[in-house]
């Protein structure tokens, strides 16, 4: 897999293409990505590149973290992610930007969805619910989840109320509408997981390639 970038979701807007059509895009800030460490098969057992994003003060780092950054000529970062690589890799300490992806390229975006707290089954799983009139007192409740006969217990993985959202999700095959290296942002068609201000990972699409 090729090296990706770590970014921060700024928000959504729309841009106009050359044919006059408007496309809804998500703006992702990817400025300040830096290669923290390069791993190789001989020393580490596998080939990978550690990428860091979002500078932080050295006083906020633990001593092992600070030593790790200084060893590889990188500045202290809040977020570090690792990408498996094959072949040549960039040097430790080098920076990566929006020019890593070209206009028209397809990417996968990984993020954490919005957390919606403890939710019932109607909101969480789109249950229909019980009758709303004629004396019914079970409007938005689950209903039967088992039987008193054999097996006489509740089966695993029953859909029940619980925490809703805040899950890691990958949205695949999104098109890079514009790669603005001077602004350090990517404009990606469609929506990506997570609220504004959340961290996301942008990597080359695994299942789709842009037409030449």
Fold and architecture overview:
It is built from 3 helices and 12 strands. The protein is mainly β and 212 residues long. It folds into 2 domains: 5-115 and 168-204, Beta Barrel (Elongation Factor Tu (Ef-tu), domain 3), CATH 2.40.30; 116-165, no CATH class. The strands form 3 sheets. A 6-stranded antiparallel β-barrel has the order 1-2-11-10-7-12. The chain has a 4-stranded antiparallel beta sheet with strand order 5-4-3-6. A two-stranded antiparallel ribbon has the order 8-9. Strand 1 and strand 2 form a beta hairpin. The model has no long low-confidence stretch (mean pLDDT 92).
What's this entry about, in short?
The chain has 212 residues and is mainly β. The protein contains three helices and twelve strands.
Total strand count, please? 12
Helical stretch count? 3
Helical percentage: under 10%
* Low-confidence residue ranges: none
Strand content: 35-45%
CATH class of the largest domain: Mainly Beta
Q: Helices and strands: which structural class?
A: mainly beta
Kindly give the count of domains. Answer: 2
Q: Output the helix-strand order.
A: EEEHEHEEEEHEEEE
Give the biggest beta sheet: 6 strands, antiparallel, barrel
Biggest sheet strand line-up: 1-2-11-10-7-12
- Report the average pLDDT across residues: 92
Assign the CATH architecture of the largest domain: Beta Barrel
* N-to-C span: 20 Å
- Radius of gyration, rounded? 23 Å
What is the name of the CATH superfamily of the largest domain? Answer: Translation factors
What overall form do the CA principal axes indicate?
extended
CATH topology of the largest domain: Elongation Factor Tu (Ef-tu), domain 3
Oligomer: single chain
């Amino acid at each position: 897999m090729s090296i990706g970038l770590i970014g921060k979701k700024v928000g959504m807007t729309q841009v106009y293409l050359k044919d006059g059509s408007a496309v809804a895009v998500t703006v992702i800030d990817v400025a300040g990505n830096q290669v923290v460490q390069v791993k190789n098969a001989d020393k580490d057992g596998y080939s990978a590149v550690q990428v860091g994003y979002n500078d932080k003060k050295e006083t906020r780092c633990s001593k092992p973290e600070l030593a790790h950054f200084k060893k590889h000529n990188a500045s202290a970062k809040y977020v570090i992610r690792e990408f498996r690589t094959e072949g040549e890799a960039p040097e430790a300490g080098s920076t990566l930007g929006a020019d890593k992806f070209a206009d028209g390229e397809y990417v996968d975006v990984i993020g954490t969805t919005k957390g919606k707290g403890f939710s019932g089954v109607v909101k969480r799983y789109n249950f229909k619910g019980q009758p709303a009139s004629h004396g019914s007192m079970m409007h938005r409740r689950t209903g039967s989840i088992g039987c008193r006969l054999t097996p006489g217990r509740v089966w695993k993985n029953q859909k029940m109320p619980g925490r809703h959202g805040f899950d890691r999700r990958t949205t695949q095959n999104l098109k890079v509408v514009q790669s603005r290296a001077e602004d350090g942002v990517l404009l990606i068609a469609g929506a990506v997981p997570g609220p504004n201000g959340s961290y996301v990972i942008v990597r080359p699409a695994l299942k789709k390639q842009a037409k030449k």
